[in-house]
Amino acid sequence: EVHRYAAVVAELAMHKQFDIVHAHDWMTYPAGIVVAATSGRPLVIHVHSTEFDRSGENINQVIYDIERKAMHAADKIIAVSRFTRNVIIDRYGISGDKVEVVHNGVERNGKNNWALNETGIEKDEKIVLFLGRITMQKGPEYFLMAAKKVLEVVDNVKFVMAGSGDMMDRAVEMAAGLGIGSKVLFTGFLRGEDVQKIYKMADLYVMPSVSEPFGIAPLEA
C-alpha cells in the first residue's frame, strides 16, 4: 500500500509547486523519495519513532529497510529527541551531521466543559489516566496490572484508558479477567477538546510505554 500511495502522490506532485518534500515516518517515506527525485526538491524526513521503538528487537525487516533507505536518501533528518537521534545514527548508519533534533510541542488550551456525569465517574473517585494508542509499544497491560494492585488497597479510583489500537479488545478482556472491569473506563479514540477535558479531569496521568522516543501525551498532560 505504501508503494501504491507513493505512485499516486508522485503523479499529484507533478502539478504542484513546493520548496521541500517533508515526509513523516515510514509509511510516507517511499512517496517522499519519489517526489523528491522527480521534482529535484530536497527531502526532509521527520522521525517520530523507529521500528526499534515499535517492535523492540523483533523488527519487521521490510519496514526497517524502508526507513534506512529514506534516511540515506534524505538531505536532512529531523528526530523528535536526542534518544531517537542516537538510534538513527547507531542502528541505521547515518552521519550525525545529517540529523537535527526538534522536540515535539503542544498547543495549550484552558477550556474544560466536560461534566463528570457524562463519564459514569463518581465525584469522589480519583481518576488515573492512560491516553495513547493501545498497542504493545504503549504498555497497556502494565497499566491494567498496576490498576489491579492499586484497587487491592483503595477502592475510590477509576482507571481511564483513552485511545484505540490493535490491543484494545485484549485490554478489555484483560480488565474483565482481572476482575476490575467496572473500574476501568475505555473511551475509545479522543481528539481535540475531548483530549483536553480528560486531562483536566485526571488526578494522575500514567505513561507505561515500553519505548517512547518523545511522546506528545506527557507534554499535553
TrEMBL record:
Start and end residues of each Glycosyl transferase family domain: 118-221
The protein's name: Glycosyltransferase subfamily 4-like N-terminal domain-containing protein
InterPro entries assigned: Glyco_trans_1, Glyco_trans_4-like_N, Glycosyltransferase_grp1
GO molecular function, one term: glycosyltransferase activity
Domain spans labelled Glycosyltransferase subfamily 4-like N-terminal: 8-107
Gene3D superfamilies: Glycogen Phosphorylase B
Stored PANTHER family: SULFOQUINOVOSYL TRANSFERASE SQD2
